[in-house]
What we know:
- By secondary structure, this protein is mainly α.
- Helices cover 64% and strands 0% of the residues.
- The longest helix is centred in the middle third of the chain and has 26 residues, at 35-60.
- Mean pLDDT is 78; it is low at 13-18.
Amino acid sequence: xxxxxxxxxxxxxxFQSASAxxxxxxxxxxxxxxxxxxxxxxxxxxxxxxxFVTGRIVGKNDVTVCLPKEGVAAEQARLIVEKYLRDNPxxxxxxxxxxxxxxxxxxxxxx
Length: 111
């Protein structure tokens, strides 16, 4: 997938507050059978499945994360995950969701 398209998707769904994507927004994206909307639908759906997988792994290990009250913008999360992947090449064979979770948990520990 071209990097420009990924940037467009991240920019389109970067929220200033902690508000979530609404069902209407997701349906509009999924109704598009090609282009950015289709990609958003696929990526969101895949991310949702990855979230379940990661939740099972994290839940078994009693891991906690304390996200800021104002939330985390999609672009910030992307940058955190990118940095973690770049800094930990020896882990790249592991489940992507686990690596992304490690990146986020490591960036927002509870004090």
